[in-house]
Amino acid sequence: MASEEIVQEEQQQLNGDEFAARDYADPVPQPLLGASELQRWSLYRAAIAEFVATLLFLYLTVATVIGHKHLSEDDACGGVGLLGIAWAAGGTIFLLVYCTAGISGGHINPAVTFGLLLARKVSLLRAALYMAAQCLGAACGAGIVRALNSAHFEQHGGGANVVDAGYSKGAGLGAKVVGTFVLVYTVLSATDAKRSARDSHIPVLAPLPIGFAVFVVHLATIPITGTGINPARSFGAAVVYNQRNAWSGTTLPAWIFWVGPLIGAAIATLYHEHVLRASALKARGSFKDRV
Length: 291
What we know:
Its main location: membrane. InterPro entries: Aquaporin-like (IPR023271), Aquaporin_transptr (IPR034294), MIP (IPR000425), MIP_CS (IPR022357). The protein is mainly α and about 290 residues long. About 70% of the residues lie in helices and about 0% in strands. It starts with a helix and ends with a helix.
């Protein structure tokens, strides 16, 4: 009898309610404004990390695009090709997220920052500072490429995103929405508190799927708009190139650089937080329990 009671007690522990069985805790939602963060050095350190990471991302990816176009001028097989450009983008994001995740979260993309803002993972003040740092870093990164490859930079369009021949503006916008959805959905899933607790013994698991998401999205959307799921990347290259057809002309209006990725980020956040995680229902249930 005693042994049976012990077995029953162990079974009850295994079949306990959700809260008793949890080995993780959901992060506390960040304040909407977050003005108190202005007094913390960690906020400015994180913004500097975002600036440097986005600068490096632009330098490596734009330089890869320019180098590929230059080498493939006379030989179609001379450059790294679409696959090489996609690997450069995905691999760079993997490395930079791994390096900066513990400091700033490793956003390196205003659309990712926007998604995390909607999910209450960052405050409005931090999100605004991150986006400014990312855009400034992107312009500086593209500027370094222009300084080192001035002739090829101008000749090959500065690595700026444009809608390829045969695709409409609507197709370009749709490609950005879907591509950014994949990226932000992956970011939210990879950094989910439950998953992080389960996979805490393998620290590279979060940056790895994020890098792969960037890689596969590039494979699918480079032929359409040069990808463009990172507004800072599109902004930096277009500003430094400073040509109408790459920034505000009829080929790819500037608003597509921002509207498409932000819509994709918002949809991904809504899907992950309120469908998969059912955050609204959890909050409602918690409120009822307290009442």
